[in-house]
Design a protein that fits this description.
seven-stranded mixed sheet; four-stranded antiparallel sheet; 670 residues
């Protein structure tokens, strides 16, 4: 077996290949995906005394959307310096999305993000300003030595030194004797009797180097993979670092749960993305005043400062005012951004930002491009926090931005960093074409429907992190992973091990290895991915109607039936890539099915039906739930706040989790 090197030379595949060999394992709790949610789930389950296995297609030490680092810990309303309650913050986050944000995952995050971060600190993660480098800073709590971002009054977003959190979590897995199988791409969930809709009793995967089959039997399974990318736009040559989430996130967790009969919701939501364009700039790699760079001053080519305004459009006079609620606000949550769509009545929770009509005023001659982020002109503490903590610990910026720019001579105390606003794009918020869309590369999106145990409609299948419907953020992944791992372990205590169907295993082996005999003149996996993207651009873009969506469904069915089987693979790595694109086809079909089911437009869902133009009619203010039943898609709905009251549903389960983890001999810190 040979692989093509970039030099054009054929090289031998460097690993021993064992196609068809089966490696079997058993666990109390199986975790699929070794990203942030997955490792936290495994740690929590192991701390209850459960035997835990992780299957991860990359290397757990740094894999996942948050594996390279984190600079701020969102929505930690339970921290000791917070001035708002988890209930207040969770409801505000939900309201800011018009109700289309999960009350379950969001409340778990708001009520236990700090508790989770405290455990990270016990593992060796730096959480506080222990060297007093920022003593006296406006954003520092002197009693706890915690540093805060965005809203300095209410203090519920914590700045952290998180560049090494993932390796520390990997060390904790070793200490707890969690079995981690890296380079295993899961291909299927296993169910009792091999029946869709039945209890999940394990999973199968492909070892991406040896080609062996891996079969794990488990009493409970936590699905902690990421959201599907590469649905509307795909170019392995052009995009590079411009993606926000890893382009290897192919929606496999969605696809395997869908094929097993799991419920999904909000799959109809997609949005124009500044990261969807192949011409986008590296995230946070050009000067801007939002998110990681918040609240940096922006100046034009002549050094003229761009004004900031509050949520009501009123001008602000200085940097300090950019980080405080104004009259009429108790707190703000957006850190200079905006809601998914601007709606009346949301100003009470929006944060200050540079003037929204800057482009108009530039065209009128008031400001001269190019614009620059003026770190040098910022107060010293703010400059050090932005460049030293935020840019220095955010995974997408520590190496490609901070290290690279510093090595090239950039000095934040002296230099300004150019913004690409109004040149090619808008920094992070680059304007893109309607078809340059994304499913969940940013913001809340659709996903697995779960209950307050974070269990799906399939008994024994739990979800965590970005896979869950209506959630987002690093701390959401950590908090829901921790919660789901404990719930899964408690379920495993009550449930006996289910029987694996040999017929299902053999059927899955045939499917997984089929591309090894692919057509010699067939397309490769990149071509299939590009074809899916073109179908979605053409027929499931911003304007939608029944006819367009029917064409999307027809074309995707055709690709799945006639082109996907012709895609071949020459080695285990290519075999993994082929199945990633098969899963992308499945995710695209899920999205189209959900779009066909919602017969109303919605600003909050960025959803425009030309044949149903009324925006957010009351009778359609609900969650649409889809499920695969045979060759059909079943559709039902849930009320917008179906989860009920937060505390009565959350607290007893959380307390049970904590008790279970505390009783384990594994609970003590290393």
């Amino acid at each position: 077996m040979s692989v093509m090197h970039e030099s054009g030379q054929l090289l031998r595949w460097p690993y021993k290949v064992n196609y068809g060999t089966e490696r079997s394992h058993e666990a109390d709790v199986l975790v699929i995906g070794g990203g942030i949610a997955g490792v936290w789930a495994a740690i929590a389950a192991a701390r209850t005394g459960a035997k835990v296995i992780i299957l991860e297609k990359a290397a757990t030490e740094r894999s996942g959307a948050g594996g390279a680092g984190v600079d701020h810990w969102q929505w930690a309303a339970d921290n000791p310096a917070s001035r708002i309650s988890p209930e207040e913050l969770a409801q505000a986050l939900i309201d800011n999305q018009g109700g289309y944000r999960s009350g379950i995952g969001t409340y778990i995050q708001c009520a236990s993000a700090w508790e989770t971060l405290s455990e990270m600190e016990q593992m060796g993660g730096k959480v506080r300003d222990t060297e007093d480098e920022f003593r006296g800073a406006d954003f520092r709590d002197e009693e706890t030595k915690l540093l805060f971002a965005y809203d300095y009054t209410n203090r519920f977003v914590i700045r952290v030194w998180g560049h090494n959190y993932k390796p520390l979590l990997r060390e904790e897995l070793r200490r707890l004797n969690v079995q981690v199988f890296d380079r295993v791409a899961v291909s299927s969930l296993l169910t009792e009797g091999g029946r869709p809709g039945a209890r999940v009793v394990g999973a199968m995967g492909l070892h991406c180097r040896s080609g062996a089959s891996v079969v794990v039997r488990a009493k409970a399974t936590v699905l902690a993979t990421n959201r599907p990318q590469r649905i509307w736009t795909f170019s392995s040559e052009l995009r590079g670092i411009s993606t926000f989430r890893p382009p290897s996130c192919s929606g496999t967790g969605y696809a395997i749960a869908w094929r097993a009969g799991a419920d999904f919701t909000m799959m109809e939501k997609s949005m124009r993305s500044p990261f969807a364009s192949p011409y986008a700039f590296p995230p946070y790699g050009s000067g801007n005043g939002i998110n990681t760079w918040y609240p940096c001053t922006i100046v034009d080519a002549n050094g003229k400062e761009v004004p900031w305004v509050d949520a009501y459009g009123r001008p602000l006079s200085g940097v300090a005012e950019r980080c405080r609620p104004v009259e009429g606000q108790k707190f703000f949550i957006m850190g200079g951004g905006s809601s998914s769509q601007p709606h009346p009545g949301l100003s009470e929770h929006l944060g200050p930002k540079p003037i929204p009509d800057l482009e108009t005023r530039m065209l009128a001659g008031e400001f001269t491009p190019p614009f620059y982020a003026d770190l040098a002109g910022m107060p010293e503490m703010e400059r050090k926090a932005i460049w030293g903590i935020m840019v220095g610990n955010e995974g997408k910026t520590r190496i490609p931005v901070m290290h690279t720019y510093t090595a090239s001579g950039f000095d934040p105390e002296r230099d300004m960093l150019q913004s690409y606003d109004f040149l090619r794009g808008h920094g992070m918020r680059e304007p893109v074409l309607p078809q340059e869309r994304t499913f969940g590369e940013q913001g809340v999106c659709g996903g697995l429907l779960v209950d307050w145990d974070l269990m799906s409609n399939l008994p024994g299948l739990f979800g965590a992190g970005d896979l869950l419907f209506g959630g987002q953020d690093h701390s959401h992944a950590a908090a829901t992973g921790r919660y789901a791992g404990a719930r899964a372990a408690l379920y495993a205590r009550r449930a006996g091990a289910g029987a694996i169907s040999r017929e299902q295993v053999e059927r899955e082996k045939r499917r997984v290895y089929a591309p090894l005999a692919g057509s010699a003149d067939g397309p490769d996996w990149k071509e299939l991915n590009a074809a899916v993207a073109r179908v979605m651009q053409n027929y499931c873009s911003e304007p939608k109607n029944a006819g367009l969506l029917a064409l999307a469904r027809t074309w995707l069915e055709d690709l799945e039936a006639n082109e996907a089987p012709r895609v071949g693979a020459g080695d285990p790595h290519q075999l993994m890539r082929v199945h990633e694109v098969h899963d992308i086809v499945t995710c695209a079909r899920m999205i189209v099915a959900a779009c066909e089911a919602r017969k109303a437009s919605s600003a909050y869902l960025h959803f425009n039906r030309l044949d149903y133009p009324e925006m957010d009619p009351a009778e359609w203010h609900k969650w649409l739930v889809i499920r695969k039943t045979g060759d059909e898609v079943a559709v039902c709905d849930r009320p917008i706040a179906f989860w009920g009251d937060f505390e009565p549903n959350y607290r007893p389960r959380h307390d049970e989790n904590i008790t279970a983890m505390a009783r384990s001999p594994n609970r003590a810190a290393a």
